[in-house]
Automatic annotation (TrEMBL):
ABC transporter domain span: 8-227
Stored InterPro entries: AAA+_ATPase, ABC_transporter-like_ATP-bd, ABC_transporter-like_CS, ABC_transpr_LolD-like, P-loop_NTPase
Record GO terms (molecular function): ATP binding; ATP hydrolysis activity; transmembrane transporter activity
Name of the featured protein: Putative ABC transporter ATP-binding protein/MT1014
Coiled-coil intervals, chain numbering: none
UniProt keyword Ribosomal protein present: no
Keywords, in A-Z order: ATP-binding, Nucleotide-binding
Organism: Palleronia marisminoris
One cellular-component annotation, GO: plasma membrane
Amino acid sequence: MGGEGLPLAIEDLEVRSTDGRVLLSVPRLELPAGGTLGIRGPSGAGKSTLLFALAGLQDRMTGRIRWGDTDLGALRSGPRTAFRALHVGIVFQDFLLFEELGPLANASLAAMYRPRAERPGIRDRARRLLRRFGVDEDGRTVPTLSGGERQRVAVARAMSGDAAILLADEPTANLDRDTGERLLADLLARVRENGTTLVAVSHDDRLLARMDRVVKIVDGQMVSAHA
Ligand SMILES: Nc1ncnc2c1ncn2[C@@H]1O[C@H](COP(=O)(O)OP(=O)(O)OP(=O)(O)O)[C@@H](O)[C@H]1O
C-alpha cells in the first residue's frame, strides 16, 4: 500500500442528528490528492462530525463525499467499511484503543484488514513508529498508558497502514510542546513522502500553519476557507 492519496470532493453535505437537526452543512469543499487540510473552530462546532463523515462513519448524511471515484454517501455500510479499512487511517479524538491489547497490537491493527502480504510491513512500521514516538511497548496494556502515550499509539495506528487518506482529530492535543512537535514532524514527513491526503482537526496553531489549507467551522457551517 502507500503511494498516492485520493482527492476529496464534497458537495451539498448535510449531517443531521437523530431528531433531524442539521449538525453540519458543507455546500462545497475540495482537496487535491496529497493535499493537507486543517479544520479549526470552537468546541461543539461540528469538526469531529465532519471527520466522521469523511471516514464514512456518519449514517444520517445527505449529499456527496467523493474520495476519488468513490462516493461514500452512495455506498452501503459493508462496502463503506471495506473502503475505510483499505484507504483510511484515523486518529480518533478519544483514541478508541483496544484496552486489553498492548501498544504494538493496537498500532498494528490495520494488519487485520489488509491482505496477508502487507501484514509484516504494517507490524514493522508500527514497531518503528512506537519506538520513534517513545512509547515503550513491552508487556504493557492500554490502561497502564498515560493520555499522551495513548495519543501516540493512536497516531502510530493511523499511520502504520500507510493508507491513502489520513484523518486526525486533534492529534497533538495531549502532548507537551516538544513531543507534539516531533510527532507532527514525523506525521507530515510521512504524509508528504507518500502523497497521503490529510485532514486534521486541531486547535494547534503549529499544526494548522503547516497545512496547505485551513477551514473554520462555526455552528455547523463552514465560515471561512483560505488557501
Ligand atoms: N449523533 C449525534 N446526535 C446529536 N447531536 C450530536 C451527535 N453528534 C454530535 N452531536 C452534536 O453536534 C455538535 C457538533 O459536535 P462535534 O463533536 O462535531 O463538535 P467539535 O467541533 O468536534 O467539538 P470539540 O472541539 O469539542 O471536539 C455538538 O453540538 C454535538 O453535541
